Every structure is written in C-alpha cells, then in structure tokens.
Amino acid sequence: MPEAPRQDSSTQPTDEELRTLDAHWRAANYLAAGQIYLLANPLLTEPLRPEHIKPRLLGHWGTSPGLNLVHTHLNRVIKNRALDALCIWGPGHGGPSVLANSWLEGSYSETYPDVTRDAQGMELLMRQFSFPGGVPSHVAPEVPGSIHEGGELGYSLAHAYGAALDHPGLLVACVIGDGEAETGPLAASWHANKFLDPVHDGAVLPILHLNGYKIANPTVLSRLPQSELDALLRGYGHEPIHVSGDDPAAVHRAMAQAMDTALDRIAEAQRAAREEGVTERPHWPVIVLRTPKGWTGPAEVDGEPVEGTWRSHQVPLAGVRDNPDHLRQLEAWLRSYRPEELFDAEGRPVANVLACVPEGSRRLGATPYANGGLLVRDLPIPSLDDFAVPVDKPGTTLHEPTRVLGDLLAQVMRDTADRRDFRLVGPDETASNRLQAVFDASGKAWQAGTLDVDEHLDRHGRVMEILSEHLCQGWLEGYLLTGRHGLFSCYEAFVHIVDSMVNQHIKWLRTSRRLPWRAPIASLNYLLTSHVWRQDHNGFSHQDPGFVDHVLNKSPEVVRVYLPPDANTLLSVADHALRSRDYVNVVVAGKQPCFDWLSMDEARVHCARGAGIWDWAGTEDGSREPDVVLACAGDVPTQETLAAAHLLRRHLPDLSVRVVNVVDLARLLPREEHPHGMNDFEYDGLFTTDKPVIFAYHGYPWLIHRLAYRRTGHQHLHVRGYKEAGTTTTPFDMVVRNDLDRYRLVMDVIDRVPGLAVRATAVRQRMADARTRHHAWIREHGTDLPEVAEWNWNA
Q: Which residues form the Xylulose 5-phosphate/Fructose 6-phosphate phosphoketolase C-terminal domain (predicted)?
C-alpha cells in the first residue's frame, strides 16, 4: 500500500522565511517582466535606453505575478515536506513565469547549458523569449517541467488528473486561470475528482487563480459573490480555501497557510483510505487565489488604470522604444523589485532568493514526471496467436473485430495489474464498442455513490468512462505524458469533439521530437469504431468519417492512420500501435460482424507492407498487366470490393482484375511527404501508371485524391466513399446511397476499362437492375436483399 505524504501543519513560516519567499517572488517577477521587454542590460547596471528594448514587445504580463506566487509557495511545501510534485500551468501565456522560475532553480541551465545562471545567461534568457530563433510565449515543450502548453484553454485540470492517475506518491498542482474556467472542458473537469482513487492515485490540488479579467472582459467566476462561488465548488466536491489581497506580505502569509492546510487535508484523506480502508469519497481542497491582474506592474499608463484591469493582460507599456515617459516608467517598474538585492554582481541569484528552492529532481523544472519518456516501460503485450481467429478460407467466417481486440486488451490489463500503467478511456462506450472483456480484468474507475443495479464499477478500476470526449482525451494525454500507456475508444463521428485537442498534442510531439532531452513517450492511440457504415441504426447524426482527414493534415512524422479490414489485421495494427512511441495512431475498425480475410501470419505480413495485392482475390495471372485495379481501404469497402471482384469473376471472366488492400493510409503519400509513403516505383508497380483504379474508401473520397494527386496515374484514379448521404436505413443501403456498393463498383469498372462499355452493356444493366431491386426490397421487407445478406467469398 503506498504511503501518504506526511502532514506538516505545525510548521508556520517565520518572518525570515516569509522574507525569503518574497525575495524569490520578486526575482521571478523581475525576470518575467525582463523577458517581455529587455534585449540587453539585464541587471540594470546602467540607465535603460531604447536600444536595450526589444523591437517587438510580445508576451503576457497579467497572469505572471500570480503564477510566480504559486511557484514560489509550491517550492516551499515541496522542500519542507519532501514531496514529488508536478505543476500544470493552465494560463498558457504564462511562459515568462515558468521560464523565470526554472532559470532561478537551475533546471533551465542544466537543460540548456548556454543559458547560464548568471548575467550572461540572464541576458540570453530575456533575449530569446518570443524572439526569432528563441522560445515561444507559452509553457511549451521547450520549457523544463512542462507537460501542458495551454495555447488552447480548457484542458489543464484534465491533464492534471491524468498525470495523477496511478502515481500514488505524486502531488499535481494545477493553476486554473479564471478565463480558462469559463470553457466547457474545464467545467466538466471539476467532475474528475469522482474518478480519483485515493489509494492508488496521486493527489490533484486545483488553484483557481481569479485575477479578474481576460484579454478584454471581466471573468465570470471573479464576479461571483464568494458565497456563490463556494457553493459551486462545494457542489463539485471540493473544499475551498481562499487567499485574497494585494499586500504582498499578507498574501505570502495567507498563501503559505493555505498550502499547508490543503496538503494536510490531502495527506489525511490518503492516509485514511490507504491505512484505515476508508471508502467514502474525499472532498479534496481547492485554493481560490484572488490577486490583481498585472500585480506589482504599472498602476497607471497614460492616465488609464492598468494594474488590476484587463489592460495589464499583455504588455502594459507598449511604446517603450519611442515614448520616453514609458521608458522611464518601465525602468521604475523593474527597479521596484530591487534587483541589486536579488542577484549578485555576477548576476547569480543570492542565497535568500534560493532558500525555498528544493533540490535535485524535486525541483518543478527537473521532475521526471514532466519528461514521461524517462519513466515509461515497455507494455507487456501477449502473443497475438493466442487471440487470432482461425481463417481456413478467406471471406467465409465472421467475427466482430473489436470484440477480438477486447480479449487482447483484457490480457494487457491483467499483465499490468501490479504495474498499473495502462488505462482504457472512452465516453461511456466500452461495452457498446465490444471491448467489455476488459471488465474481467479491471472495473470502471468510480468514487461516487453506487447502486445494486450498477455493473463493473470499481474504486480501483483502470477503465475510465465519462460522457465527455474532452476529459477522456485530457486524462489520457496527462497519463501518457507522465510515462504510461493507454487507448482511447470512441464512436467515429464524435471523436471530432477533440479535433483541436489532438492538434495540440501533435504539435507537442512534433516539437518534443526535436528536443534531445525529451525522451519518447507512449503513443496516443485512438480506436474509432461504431463507424459511418454501420451507424445505419442511429442515422445521419452518427455518420462522419472525417477525423482521418483532420489528422492527416498534421505533422507527417507524428501521425499514423490505419484501416484494418478484419479481426486479425486489427490485432496486428493494435500490437504495433501499443508498442510505438511519439505517434498519434488512429485505428478505424468495425464492431459489427465482419468477414475474416487473412490468417494471423498473413495479417502480420500485410500490415507490415501497409498496402498490398491480394492475389487470391484477383484474376490476373502474371502474363500481362491487369485491365483494372480494385483498391480498398476499410472493412466495409473491402467487403464491397471483394463482392465486386466476385461478380466480375462470374460475369466477365476474361477480365484481368487486381485487388489491392490498403491498411496504412499514409502509404498513398509520396515518400518525401511521409515516412510511410511509397516512392513512385512502388506506387506505380502496385496501382499501374495507365490502368483504371476503382478505389473504395472508408471516408470522404476526396482525401484519397489529395493523397495521390501527384502520382503518375492519378487521372485514372476513381474513388468511391462517403459523400454525406446518410440516414436510418439498412447496412447495405448505406453503401448504395453513397455509391460504394458492389454493383456500382462493377459499373465503374465497365465504364472505365476501354472497350467494356460496349462489350459488357448487358452486365452493366444487370448491376443497375440489382440496385433497383434493392430499393424496392428494403422498402417492403426492411432488410437487405438475401443475395447481399447471405453473400460470402466462397458462395
């Protein structure tokens, strides 16, 4: 049983300790402001001149003093209590503060040795901020100790809870800006405390920073009466602790007391759960910090109030190079921190400034939890042969691919039961997506009330279900970034809810790959099922395959998209995805019964190729080039393509047909555009340069054209896919409505192979008649034609 952190409520800060805390805070404020403004003269050893100022003033001052206060006081409790801690900085534009604090504690200079902890390094620290060739204004991957950029607001608290899961000795502090608190994802994230296991998980300490304003408007929570805000937070299951004021000495004392009180409550809740077996859900503390926006900055500029208003959000003094009054005001502002007391003659922080800073890996900028690749272990994935379905003849038996995968995931859950470093997340759809075998190995995490009718709820479970795709994504990102593994299962149409979140994660990974000190983390794996072609029962609202288009627009070194056509290929793809590092893997696979095409050995080889010819499905004999290529990607398109090939064998036996199946969609891209792309020789050998290619694709057909538009034979490429023709109907009618059905594919072959339009007119008419019979049949019987419903490859 993990031990709870020790309590330390008897330790009250002395006046001397408060002075050292204030010194550290002032030093951080000075460095934060300096990064926004200064190009040179970092210690103000001479009067400020315009040439000391950056030509473009970028950055955000308003949130910086509050973030510096939090960092300073986290240092104190981490040091005093010997805590392992991580902080999520929700106000993403708080980059100056986190950079300043990591420089003060020395972790920045250890990571970037040229930015030394002296005057020369201070000048470089200030110069590089939001400067060409330097570092961004956000708390980006380049910043030691960070796992959350915050360029897009709303995800800090979800990331914090994801980081705390299965890290029982970790404290995750999370600063939530009051602007961010207005977002939907953050509002949902307050419910994450109902999933936090006080026995096996760490603790999350939310710090709601109410400085009153966004970029141009007041914030909602800052204008609520304290009683109303308290009622809101208590309703979410938190016990608020308030810190308010603008007098630094009073705020330091109140913040120290608040931190001690919060951590004592956390330690007691964990001790009670771990040592006494208490199962009642704790009401975790939250600190509500009210300080002025732009605190300690200019009170007034050009006759307008600035400190404590929205005007301090970004750059309070904008015309410093051209306006002598602004320059004088800036110098007075910077000197108000008394830098000569904070740094010695060489620019090194003095002892008082560093008195509160922890040592070694307990420094927030040096914690290994913010560089999860240092902690990650290979996932124990069992042999696929133990879960593979037997395939004696292709296209004869049927299995539900995701149900087969569920058995594999259940074994992974069992094999990580002691390690607790694998989680499955999804929005209330684990069983719906046929993955319910995992419940034999782990229940669903749940700390709220239970009823006798409930199933699979478990206080220590590692399956995470909540009806918020944002939370699922945020939890998993925080989990992966701190050194663990996971899978996100979602209905294909609704994964779009996290479009912008995956965009941010991809950008994070792309940047991290360029930083040698960041170790690779486990990939973010999506399983998209309940897909467009088998949402015939739910209808048009549930039919959208466009997430793949969104992802393939992103950094090619990071993104991977797989469309396994059957159960064994899904096992092979999942095995690869779960073992991979630093990718975003999108796997699209059905949950409904699907034909088994390949044995496990064949599936491994086919998935390794990514795209290949299925010799057994075509009719080419090697003596000449094929007359036509039938290509497919996705389970339903593969079935329709094979059914079309079957019809061509029967009705046009002299036609030479090649069947190509694509599992790895990026294979269609040129090699120079994606690491998995084919060179022109490979592509032309597979698809030919001058023969018609009829491509049945799972999603929007124009994506295939976009991927292959530079290929020699692109003018011969004809793609069928989903074209927003959906409704509640039969499964086969969905493909007919979108012209992806077997009969239409045969008609396409006849229309595009030279000479067939005249020779095979009767066959084409037969195909068109079959579509007409289909329309009449489903309206009378409500089911698909028997020749479709009962079809198999060996019929």
A: 591-793
Residue among 669, 528, 506, 530 nearest 586 (CA): 528
Residues 344 and 353: their CA atoms lie apart, in Å, by 11
- Please tell me whether residues 200 and 139 are part of one structural domain: yes
Please, what's the b/e burial string for 754-770 (b: 16 or more CB within 10 A of its CB; e: otherwise)? eebeeebeebbeebeeb
3 domain residue, yes or no: no
Going edge to edge, which strands form the sheet with 84-89? Answer: 84-89, 170-177, 203-210, 284-290, 238-244
The DSSP letter of residue 101 is H
What letters, b where the CB count within 10 A reaches 16 and e where it falls short, cover 635-669?
bbbbbbbbbbbbbbeebbeebbbbbbbbbbbbbbb
pLDDT tens digits, residue range 666-713?
Answer: 999 999 999 999 999 999 999 999 999 999 999 999 999 999 999 999
Nearest-angstrom CA–CA distance, 640 and 757: 21
Range of the domain at 184: 16-370
Strand order across the 463-465 sheet: 457-458, 444-445, 463-465, 422-426, 485-491, 524-529, 584-588, 559-562
Is 744 contained in some domain? yes
CATH number at residue 311: 3.40.50.970
Structure tokens at 733: 């009618």
- Cβ atoms of 755 and 656 within 8 Å: the answer is no
**Per-position b or e across 100-114, b if 16+ CB within 10 A of its CB:** bbbbbbbbbbbbbee
Outline where 114-213 has alpha helix (H).
Answer: 119-128, 156-164, 184-189
Tokens of 612: 């290949």
The dihedrals phi and psi of 560, each to the nearest 5 degrees, come to -140, 135
**Strand partners for 50:** none
Model pLDDT, residue 119: 97
The single residue listed with the structure tokens 């902890």 is 117
Strand, coil or helix: what is 194? helix
Q: Cα separation of 583 and 506, whole Å?
A: 8
Alpha-carbon distance of 489 to 491, in angstroms, equals 7
The phi and psi torsions of 364 (rounded to 5 degrees) equal: -60, -30
Residue pointed to by tokens 């912008």: 500
Helix (H) or strand (E) holding 750: helix 742-752
Q: What pairs with residue 288 in β-bridges? A: 208, 242
Residues near 565 by Cβ (< 8 Å), separated by ≥ 6? 594, 597, 598, 632, 634, 635, 638, 661, 663
pLDDT of the residue at 791: 96
The most distant pair of C-alpha atoms in the chain lies apart, rounded to whole Å, by 98
Residues 683 and 568 in one domain: no
Residue whose tokens read 């801690």: 85
Q: Pick from 335, 355, 370: which residue ends a domain?
A: 370
Q: Are residues 327 and 417 in the same domain?
A: no
Cα angle value 594/598/600 (rounded, 5°): 110
Q: Which residue has the tokens 């004999």?
A: 621
Note the pLDDT tens digit of each residue in 739-762.
999 999 999 999 999 999 999 999
Number of separate domains in the chain: 3
| Dihedrals phi, psi of 310, to nearest 5 degrees | -65, -20
Kindly report the backbone phi and psi dihedral angles of residue 397, in degrees, each rounded to the nearest multiple of 5, phi listed first: -100, 160
389 touches 109 (CB < 8 A): no
Tokens coding 342: 């904070």
CA distance 560 to 583: 7
Contact status, residue 6 vs residue 81, Cβ threshold 8 Å: yes
Q: Which secondary structure element, helix H or strand E, spans residue 762, and what is its range?
A: helix 761-781
Residues 557 and 695 in one domain: no
User: What is the C-alpha to C-alpha distance for residues 525 and 447, in angstroms, rounded to an integer?
Assistant: 26
Cα gap 157→118, rounded to integer Å: 35
Burial bucket for residue 449 (CB in 10 Å: 0-12, 13-18, 19+): exposed
Q: Over the stretch 102-157, which tens digit does the pLDDT of each residue have? A: 999 999 999 999 999 999 999 999 999 989 988 888 899 999 999 998 888 999 99
Domain boundary among 311, 345, 370: 370
